[in-house]
Amino acid sequence: MTSISTINVPFHGDSLYVVNYNGQPYVPMKPIVEGMGMDWASQFTKLKQRFKSTIAEITMVAEDGKSRNMLCIALRKLSGWLHTISPNKVKPEIRDKVIRYQEECDDVLYEYWTTGEVKKKPNFRQSTAKELIPLRQTAERLIAHGVGNIYPDIWKHVHAEFGVQHINELLPEQIPLAISYLDALEGEYLPQQKAQLEPKLDINYPLTWYPDNFPYVDMCFYKQGQLRITRSVLVETRSPSREIFSKLKVSGYDVTAAEAEIASLRHFVSELSWAIDSIGGFVQMRDRISKTFTA
Hints:
Helix 5 (133-144) runs parallel beside helix 7. The N and C termini lie far apart (126 Å). This protein has eleven helices and seven strands. The protein folds into three domains: 1-119, Mlu1-box Binding Protein, DNA-binding Domain (Roll), CATH 3.10.260; 122-198, no CATH class; 209-294, no CATH class. The protein is rod-shaped and about 135 Å long. A hairpin with a 2-residue loop joins strand 2 (14-21) and strand 3. By secondary structure, the protein is an alpha+beta fold. It has helices at residues 29-36, 40-50, 78-82, 92-115, 133-144, 154-162, 175-197, 209-213, 231-236, 240-250, 256-294; strands spanning 6-11, 14-21, 24-28, 55-61, 67-74, 220-223, 226-229. 52% of the residues lie in helices and 14% in strands.
């Protein structure tokens, strides 16, 4: 393979590199991994397994003038690899350095790729790693709760909201504001999550429910687009209203008042039906007696 020249990028005392590979910026990974203080062998395996489509072995000229094959990743994918590392799971002595790489490394390399330098930022009093702990804990909580599914790169949203490139550029007084901003993102996410988790109520009782459920019983007829139900059907058969109440109760709704109302109405109709039948019986008996005495 033809050797390729590299851009040397100083980064907090470490030497990183950007390589022009087929017109695209690629980054040798071993200097980054070792610069963070981590084990190269395990990260080499992870890169081979999880980033197979975005890595390449590139022959580079090292500082000693010799050519060596280096495993490189596309710069646009570097942030994705950086955030596979959890700062809480690394050794305490390298935690701050890992965080610094996660927050700054890809941006610094991109600036060198595009401009050949990193512009100095105004010298404000930036937040310390200790001051940023509550903000990091908030972000980790959101990611653990699934907010990352909607906002895949939470830190990019914070950067854009406060006009910074890294969270350590936040002023100490901005940290509570950033925490409130993340809490607001969680507030937007939770209703969506609740809507996804809540089962949809299966409450569909169209006019055809009666003839569909009782096809062989003369119970109802249509008149002017409405369904008229006979007394016997209303009193003696299944009730769609009661089925609806049952489903609502299973879903946690209190519908006892509505249940009581329908039960009272059905009881009243039942009593009225009995009275009408009794009156009909007495009328028939009276007519028979009347015919007997007039015959």
